[in-house]
Amino acid sequence: MNKTIYKIEGMHCPSCASMIELDLEDAGITAKCSYAKGALEIEGDHDKKNVVEVVKKSGYSLS
């Protein structure tokens, strides 16, 4: 299974990472977000456009 890692900008604490994970889960995307690494890790196929939209609505951005 392939793994995609995105850099996330705008997180201020570990709770931010948890919130992103929960918002993505609500959208049907299983992901791991790390505040320490500033990264979002998604395994398997997914729609990047959908990920960007969910992360943006949460108040963060992908780079």
Structural notes for this entry:
- There is one protein chain.
- The protein is an alpha+beta fold and 63 residues long.
- It has a single domain (3-62), classed as Alpha-Beta Plaits (2-Layer Sandwich), CATH 3.30.70.100.
- It is built from two helices and four strands.
- The chain has helices at 14-26, 48-57, and strands spanning 3-9, 31-34, 39-43, 61-62.
- A four-stranded antiparallel sheet has the order 2-3-1-4.
- Strand 2 (31-34) and strand 3 form a beta hairpin.
- The radius of gyration is 10 Å and the shape is globular.
- The mean pLDDT is 95.
Whole-number average pLDDT?
95
Coarse structural class: alpha+beta
Indicate the low-confidence ranges by residue numbers.
Answer: none
How many domains make up the 3D coordinates?
1
Which architecture name does CATH use? 2-Layer Sandwich
State the name of the first-level CATH class.
Alpha Beta
Biggest β-sheet: strands ordered side by side in the sheet: 2-3-1-4
